[in-house]
Amino acid sequence: TAPDKHEITERFTLQNTTTHIPTILLSLFGAIASYEGWNALNLVAGEVHDPQRTMPLAITIATVAAIVFYISCNVAYLTVLPVEVMKTSSAVALDLGRIALGRCGQLLLSVCVVASCLATVLGLVLCNSRLLQRAALDGQVPEFFKFTLISTSTPILSIILHGCLCSIFAMITSLEALTTIVIIVSWLFYMLCFSAQLVLRYKHKLRPSFRVPALIPILLILFSVVLMISPALTSTGKYRSSFTVTVILLAVLTPISIVSTLPSLQSPDNRLVQTSERLTRYISSSGSFS
To answer: Mean pLDDT for each consecutive 10-residue tract of the chain (290 residues)?
Structure first.
């Protein structure tokens, strides 16, 4: 039966909700994962026509559209589905379609979810592969990742590496744990980017054509710190485990990244450097890459 007006109103109140700050922050992890990609356009700015005009416009329109869409979806969920059903549901959108529109509605929303996931994957492949390619051009990773497949104009080697890493992480951990790890690591690098913006602005006196008020990166730095440590403050074991795994990964990979930049490892006599150079020459001579 359809819920009455009083029952729907109760679903939009704050009764029986928690005031525990770490728990509230943890509840943001899923929302933040949904909005992840807000910065993706910056990674392909070099391929955008008239970026000074297009970038702010595209980011603003896309962010506002995503906010309106996600809020509308949650209003629909709370209007149609009881909170108890949403807590136990493995696919809230499909339950909404089934109750509101029957079997056809469930099938329609299933197609929409698949299309949304596919669009997300394509967007991440487009943006993240360019990030690794840029790092190769700057000499921060092996040089052979800079090559682009001529027939498709795509950094295929970078895409293959991303696909392998994603497959490995997907096989060794759960989706929930992986989401927590990705959010913590992502916001660590976001915090570094926000800090770098302040350093460039006040220490190096950089004055780009598009700037945001200094208060915004300061607030985002504070939010990043609180968000990253929130899993350690909760009593939920699965979040603490994910936080511990993240700390271990950073503790292992950070020294490796620092050591890899030492002059002794950049020497032409180093075997790793020689192997990278041979691969670079072989790929370059194949005629399929530029």
So the answer is: 56 67 74 74 77 82 86 84 78 83 85 86 81 78 74 79 82 76 82 89 80 87 84 66 71 65 57 60 60
Distances (CA, A) of 250 to 20, 156, 159, 189, 238: 28, 27, 23, 12, 19
pTM over 0.85: no
Q: Find tokens 């690591």 and name the residue.
A: 185
State residue 168 phi and psi, 5-degree precision: -65, -50
* CA 240 – CA 235 distance, rounded (Å): 8
In this structure, the number of other CB atoms found within 10 A of the CB of residue 102 comes to: 10
Give the integer Cα–Cα distance in Å for 145 and 14: 51
Residues 6+ apart with CB under 8 A from 217: 194, 195, 197, 198
* b/e per residue 5-17 (b: at least 16 CB within 10 A): eeeeeebeeeeee
Polymer length of the chain: 290
Tokens of residue 167, six digits:
């497959």
Q: Mutual orientation of helices 215-233 and 175-202 as an angle, nearest 10°? A: 150
DSSP 39: T
